[in-house]
Amino acid sequence: MSYRAVDIVEYIEKLADPKYQESWDNSGWQIKSDVDVNKVLICMDLTLERIEYALKNEFQLIITHHPMFFSGIKSIQDDYKSKMIKKLVMNNICVYSAHTSFDVSNSGVNKVLFDFLMLEEPKDLIITDSGKGLGLIGVNKNFKSINELLKFLESNLLVDSYKVYGRSIKDINKIALIGGSGASEIQSAIDNGADVYLTSDVKHHDAQIAYENDLILIDISHNDSEKLALKWMSEYIKEKFDIEIETMLDNAFTLKLD
């Protein structure tokens, strides 16, 4: 059975409305075409390799978390991005991205991670300019130590790498989190009384702030912090559409070594 691409996207936008995206973001259609869709590919980021995979396996719609475009393109030539555009357009493959619109959704990236950690009593970490909450903080009743939490992440989230910063080992009463790049909100985690803050893309001086404020800061990869939401998106679409969906959870930019 096939469905119109615009109908599938309309359903996604009930979950992740583009009007709530951050001002710098570009959630929404990247390559729009009202094609009939019977196969959907979901991934974090789009590359030529993944476009070739979609073409070979006859996917008509690609849904990404991170947009193809963040800034304007003045011309299409022979650079990498131009090759992506031409390959998609020539083969009538459309692309839609739900980025910060999905981050701030009540059932989006951060809520999926919150539920995965079995936290309770969710509270927004910050309020964005659009009036939506970004990030969550909640009460921990499951992990008795930082080591137990880390082992859970290793075994169940299958994190490929992580770093832990902090000044002291302590009880974990509250855990704050932002999937993706959330280092800019370390102070918000501190102000909200978090004992642990889980996020990505932490820099040296971010770790210093956490250390000075006795906050345990867990820095996992950007991809790992958001990949559960891709699986959730797949399940959400399948609730309405009887359609084949493949979800890629690996990092598209990792160098494949022999």
Describe this structure in words.
The structure is a single chain. This protein has 2 domains: 3-99 and 226-248, NIF3 (NGG1p interacting factor 3)-like (Udp-n-acetylmuramoylalanyl-d-glutamate--2,6- Diaminopimelate Ligase, Chain: A, domain 1); 103-222, 3-Layer(aba) Sandwich (Udp-n-acetylmuramoylalanyl-d-glutamate--2,6- Diaminopimelate Ligase, Chain: A, domain 1). The protein contains 9 helices and 13 strands. The protein has helices at residues 5-15, 48-56, 80-90, 100-103, 109-116, 146-157, 186-191, 204-212, 222-238, and strands at residues 3-4, 28-31, 36-37, 39-43, 61-64, 94-97, 120-127, 133-139, 162-165, 174-181, 196-200, 216-220, 244-247. The strands form 3 sheets. The chain has a 6-stranded mixed beta sheet. The protein has a 5-stranded mixed beta sheet with strand order 2-6-5-4-13. Helix 5 packs across helix 9 (222-238). The chain is elongated and about 55 Å long. Keywords: Metal-binding. Belongs to the GTP cyclohydrolase I type 2/NIF3 family.
Task: Label this structure with key terms.
258 residues; alpha/beta; Udp-n-acetylmuramoylalanyl-d-glutamate--2,6- Diaminopimelate Ligase, Chain: A, domain 1; 6-stranded mixed sheet; 5-stranded mixed sheet; 34% helix; metal ion binding; DUF34/NIF3; metal-binding
Mean pLDDT: 96
CATH class of the largest domain: Alpha Beta
Q: How many strands, which pairing sense, and closed or not: the largest β-sheet?
A: 6 strands, mixed
Adjacency order of strands in the biggest sheet: 7-8-10-11-12-9
Could you tell me the number of beta strands? 13
CATH-wise, what's the superfamily of the largest domain? NIF3 (NGG1p interacting factor 3)-like
Calculate Rg over CA atoms: 19 Å
- CATH topology value of the largest domain: Udp-n-acetylmuramoylalanyl-d-glutamate--2,6- Diaminopimelate Ligase, Chain: A, domain 1
User: Which percent range fits the helix content?
Assistant: 25-40%
**Number of discrete helical segments:** 9
Given helix and strand content, the structural type is: alpha/beta
- Secondary-structure element pattern, one letter each: EHEEEHEHEHHEEHEEHEHEHE
